[in-house]
Design brief:
This protein is about 50% helix and about 15% strand. By secondary structure, the protein is α+β, with helices and mostly antiparallel strands. It folds into four domains: about 200 residues, no CATH class; about 190 residues, no CATH class; about 160 residues, no CATH class; about 190 residues, no CATH class. β3 and β4 form a beta hairpin.
């Protein structure tokens, strides 16, 4: 014990004696350990323990796939009730509506409206949610004649109600939506816990109010009214495949019993479904940080090797006085461990700051990132990373020490070993740094080219200088279709008259916010569709000037006009993708189709009057789907997203627009104000995040590798000072000396780049799914990265090489 304490004291003295070395080594370690700690906290939060719900491994989502469509289709309430009665695989089947029935809650006269969804009582029982205050929904409140009740989020309770415990029992007005008639009053019955985040509601993750299913009246018993997403909990011991087999049988039975369409039902793990878009990305970034940490360890090992060469005489004397080699190795390990502890401590502080940045980047896109923290598991991983790093970077000096001929060191007047084995080991470490850095740089280069391709994608619309905002028409004055239609037309005209406004349009739902509902349709007259092609398309409601305001080109036919607004017959515009899929090599203009949403004895049909160019309105990455746009004046929505194209900075128009809307109707407010470019950027957050982090890791790895090369070459020049002086004294030109040093640098760089290319060939296959219109074996990226790394390596060699050409032969000959 006393021996270990004396070794620790001695190690502390040696680190204090070399403050420059200690500071550099600790900073380098802090970068690597801080980065891997921060990324592991993301892995822990997002992938290992993402949900605050008990038994989250038993939570699943259930989707139906009609034979006429390829999209995930919502479920109707009657179907849910049948599944609840007949299924034996589920402990609880919950339904949350995400289609058509979203409402807004008015809390205070001037406060912004809060979006609300409707959920069955079984949803909260499936998630095993415990309210902070009050209670949850009951089975009686799931029925259309039940009490109208409301649950509020913890954040809303804190911000709008001042954490008032008397909020229970309070009556809150809930704005009307397009299905349910007049506005309704709901009673607050409970406050949800702070860790309840509805990540399973795509596009509605910020929902802060939940209405009971008793608020659904008109479509409660309609089996063809698909309004909800199913979240269920399997019974203990039941697997997904067993539940899948049972539900398949129920789907066939229900289709036979009710004469409906055959449907394929799919059950997926809730965890896998929610993280499917980020899990591979996070793991790949974690692996990239691991590569960076490897470079850090190699760099510190090189520093220790260089430092140990200056202590050869000291170590040899200690060995001569009786210290065994394993005792000396123990001393090296203790010094390395102290460096790792200091680097790890500073790294944790850096990780704390890094986590705040990561939350700022990802918090809006991954709801459970709110739990991002340096908890016990993360700190335990950090301690393990520090220990492993210590072992890795202490191996090189330990191996050198075990193989060192101490007698030769004592006989050498310089007091240092010039063993070629030591130099080969140091050169090998440099090669490893170059190879790993090249792998990271190739990955960053491919992601960078992919991002550029993504940003250069033809959107089919012009997002520059466009402001977007949402308007909800849910007051009592908008109960009639005519009132909503007139308000939208009047607002369109008033906006158009504002100074600096070029064009105005509206869409419900809006692009880059929530995709339109994939709606089946049938042909009434005109050209028939292709046989065996499912007849469904995204359905949207737009204003007459929407396409002009969006900058979408007309391919055939015409845009909507004022006559269409007043016409009694429906008009429709489709995109090129819809024309290609259903009427290839034909002209569908004049064809009349009937969307499934048209109900009644004489369902409304719509004549196709125009075909517009394809546009990536919903996502940049996915393929363009068929879309049909209906004039909103013919079917006035209960809300719309306006797009305003301006000649000035779009956000500078917000104040004027708010005043305009207030003058039109004081009860109407504008929500979710953003530029169109901002909405587009939100759809590529994953690509931007991956590029930023991978780019940071790659640049850091490049700098560390350059420092490693510089250190090795500087030390090599220091060892060969006498030889270089003799060469110059014998008449060698300074260019020859420069070439001698650069030749070794080129050799190390060439071997490292060759090894790195082999590694990159394998690694890039893993990130292929993250690339957009870029091949994983892109020759341009490989060539540019290789040349860049070679150039920087030669620059790192050139500095000590140039110093070598300035050696004074007389000084070198006296060098010891």
């Amino acid at each position: 014990m006393s021996t270990s304490c004396s070794d620790i004291k001695y190690a502390c003295r040696m680190l204090r004696k070399n403050p420059g070395f200690t500071i550099v080594a600790v900073l380098i370690l802090a970068i690597g350990i801080g980065a891997i700690t921060s990324m592991f906290s993301v892995v822990n939060t997002v992938l290992l323990n993402p949900f605050p719900y008990p038994d989250s491994d038993r939570l699943v989502r259930v989707f139906t796939h009609p034979t006429r469509g390829t999209f995930r289709t919502p479920l109707s309430i009657p179907d849910l009730l049948d599944w609840q009665k007949q299924s034996q695989s589920f402990e609880s089947l919950g339904l949350v509506n995400q289609v058509g029935l979203f409402s807004t809650v008015l809390i205070g006269e001037r406060a912004p409206r809060v979006e609300a969804l409707r959920a069955s009582s079984t949803l909260f029982s499936a998630l095993d949610v415990k309210p902070v205050l009050g209670r949850l929904f009951t089975a009686e409140e799931d029925r259309p004649n039940g009490d109208l009740t409301l649950l509020v989020s913890y954040d809303l309770w804190q911000s709008r109600f001042g954490a008032d415990p008397n909020v229970i029992g309070r009556q809150i007005p809930v704005a009307n939506d397009f299905l349910e008639g007049s506005p309704i009053q709901c009673t607050v019955i409970g406050v949800l816990p702070p860790d309840f985040h509805p990540a399973f509601c795509a596009g509605f993750e910020g929902t802060q109010c939940w209405l009971s299913f008793s608020s659904i009246r008109k479509r409660y018993t309609q089996r063809n009214s698909r309004i909800g997403t199913v979240v269920a909990k399997l019974r203990p011991g039941v697997t997904v495949s067993q539940a899948q087999a049972e539900i398949n049988g129920l789907a066939v039975h229900m289709a036979t019993q009710y004469g409906g369409e055959d449907e394929a039902v799919r059950i997926v793990s809730l965890r896998n479904d929610l993280v499917k878009d980020v899990d591979n990305t996070v793991w790949i970034l974690f692996a990239a940080v691991g590569c960076l940490l490897m470079i850090v360890c190699v760099n510190v090992a090189n520093l220790l090797l260089t430092k140990s060469s200056s202590r050869d005489r000291e170590i040899a004397v200690r060995a001569a006085l009786g210290a065994g080699k394993w005792r000396l190795v123990q001393q090296v390990f203790i010094e390395s461990l102290l460096l790792a502890i200091l680097g790890g401590t500073l790294g944790v502080l850096l990780a704390f700051g890094g986590n705040r940045l990561l939350f700022a980047w990802l918090g809006d896109h991954i709801p459970w990132m709110v739990k991002l923290a340096l908890n016990g598991r993360v700190l335990g991983f950090t301690a393990l990373a520090c220990l492993l790093s210590c072992v890795l970077f202490s191996l090189a000096p330990a191996i050198r020490l075990l193989g060192c001929d101490l007698l030769t060191v004592l006989q050498n007047s310089a007091g240092r070993s010039t063993s070629s084995r030591y130099r080969v080991l140091q050169d090998a470490l440099v090669v490893i740094q170059i190879a790993v850095a090249l792998v990271l740089l190739v990955g960053a280069g491919l992601l960078g080219r992919s991002f550029v391709s993504l940003m250069r994608t033809d959107l089919g619309m012009k997002p520059e200088n466009v402001l977007t905002f949402h308007v909800a028409l849910d007051g009592e004055q908008f109960q009639e279709n005519r009132a909503r239609s007139e308000f939208l037309i009047r607002m369109d005209a008033e906006l158009q008259a504002l100074p600096g406004v070029r064009a105005v349009g509206s869409n419900s739902p809006f692009s880059f916010t929530r995709p339109g509902y994939n709606e089946p349709f049938s042909v009434k007259d005109g050209l028939p569709t292709q046989p065996d092609v499912p007849t469904s398309a995204l359905s949207e409601y737009v204003s007459s000037g929407y396409f002009q305001a969006a900058g979408t080109k007309l391919v055939r036919g015409r845009f909507f006009n004022d006559r269409d607004v007043l016409a009694t017959e429906g008009k429709m515009i489709i995109n090129e993708a819809m024309a290609r899929r259903f009427w290839p090599d034909q002209n569908p203009l004049g064809t009349r189709i009937i969307p499934d949403s048209s109900v009644g004895d004489d369902p409304l049909s719509y004549e196709i009057v125009g075909i517009v160019a394809d546009s990536k309105q919903h996502t940049l990455q996915n393929e363009i789907e068929p879309e049909m746009s209906i004039l909103n004046a013919q079917c006035p929505p209960w809300g719309a997203m306006f797009i305003v194209r301006t000649d000035v900075e779009p956000l500078s128009q917000v104040r004027a627009i708010r005043e305009l809307v207030a003058n039109l109707d004081k009860t109407v407010s504008i929500l979710d104000v953003r530029t169109l470019q901002g909405r587009i950027n939100d759809t590529i957050w994953r690509e931007r995040f991956s590029l930023l982090l991978n780019g940071f890791f790659s640049v850091t790895a490049l700098l560390l590798a350059s420092l490693g090369v510089y250190g090795v070459m500087a030390y090599a020049v220091n060892l060969r000072q006498q030889e270089i002086g003799i060469r110059i004294a014998m008449g060698a030109q300074r260019g020859n000396v420069l070439g001698l040093i650069l030749k070794k640098g080129c050799l190390l760089a060439g071997i490292g780049i060759a090894m790195g290319l082999l590694g990159a060939l394998a690694i890039t296959r893993i990130i292929e799914y993250m690339l957009y219109r870029v091949k994983p074996l892109d020759p341009v990226t490989f060539a540019v990265v290789s040349l860049l790394l070679l150039a920087i390596t030669l620059l790192a060699c050139y500095i000590p090489a140039r110093r070598a050409t300035k050696i004074d032969p007389m000084e070198a000959l006296r060098y010891e």
